[in-house]
Structure formats: C-alpha cells, structure tokens
Amino acid sequence: MNKKFLFVLCCIHLATAAYAQQTDIISKKEQPLYTLIEQYAQARETKDTVLLEQILTDDIDQLVSSGEWRRGFETAKQGMLRSSSANPGGRTLTVDQIRFLNRETALVDTRYEIQNPDGSLRKMWSTFVVINQNDRWKITAIRNMLPTQSP
C-alpha cells in the first residue's frame, strides 16, 4: 500500500511539474503578442504614429465594425486617428486567446471595449493577424466585430 501511494504521489508530482513547464513555455511564446496588443492600444490612445509605424506592416488591412475597409498603412493610420478623435473614450483591449498558425503567424482574439464619455460601454471583438517580420511581431490585419443582440 505504501509503495502504491508513493508511486501515485510521484506520478502526480511529475505531471504537475510537466504542466508547469509547458505553461511557462507557452507564456514566454505568447508574451510578445500580449506586448504587441498593449502597444497597439497605447498607440491608438495617444495617437502615436511613430509607434503605429513600428507595429503595423506596410500592407496592413483593417475591417472596422462600420464595414469600412482600410487597406495599406497610410489609410489604416489615418482611419485610426480619425476614429479615435470621432469616438473619444477609453479603449481597452484584453487578449482572450492566441492561436499560432506556425512560427511566424498567429491569430490574437481580443475583447475590445470603449468607455464612451456618457458612461456607456461599447463591447466588441477584435481579431489581429500578426506576423513575425525580421524578428519582430507586427500586426498585418485587424477585424473588428460588433456582436448583434440575439432575439
């Protein structure tokens, strides 16, 4: 009985240790993408075009919740600046999940909330397609979605 208990305890310990190591590896792999989304939110909030240039690809495309397409860096940048000015309020992007398609491409799904000046909250989703370009993660596509109310 004592040997069985010790064996089970040892198996649990090894499984826990393996899971903890796997979690650390995933965390280290995902951390640059969390940072990238934080930088995007910061650039939008502060209208930092230099930071946007560092984190967006030249051929970025963005589909916003109104249905407008923004294709290319200049068009996307101008649209982002216009949107931030026309829709003031605190923006919060919270990473919900990350799916790596390969070593150089990932999908980052986020909850996107805008705290309107009147106190109301606009809740949306954003999906970012990110690529590793010259050892730096960059955003190459953004899809914003405004969920509809179910009947």
Description:
This protein is α+β, with helices and mostly antiparallel strands and 151 residues long. It has one domain (32-145): Nuclear Transport Factor 2, Chain: A (Roll), CATH 3.10.450. It has three helices and six strands; from the N terminus they run H-H-E-E-H-E-E-E-E. The chain has a six-stranded mixed β-sheet with strand order 2-1-6-5-4-3. Helix 1 packs across helix 2 (49-55). The radius of gyration is 20 Å and the shape is globular. The termini are far apart. The relative contact order is 0.14. Mean pLDDT is 84; it is low at 13-23.
Task: Provide keyphrases for this structure.
44% helix; alpha+beta; 3 helices; six-stranded mixed β-sheet; single chain; Nuclear Transport Factor 2, Chain: A; 151 residues
Produce the secondary structure layout.
Layout: H1 2-46, H2 49-55, E1 56-63, E2 69-71, H3 73-86, E3 90-102, E4 105-115, E5 121-133, E6 136-145
Parallel strand pairs: 1-6
Antiparallel strand pairs: 1-2, 3-4, 4-5, 5-6
Question: What's the rounded overall pLDDT mean?
Answer: 84
Quaternary organisation of the protein chains: single chain
The CATH architecture comes to Roll
Strand order of the largest sheet: 2-1-6-5-4-3
Give the CA-based shape.
globular
Q: How is the CATH topology named?
A: Nuclear Transport Factor 2, Chain: A
The run of helices and strands is HHEEHEEEE
Q: Strand portion, in percent?
A: 35-45%
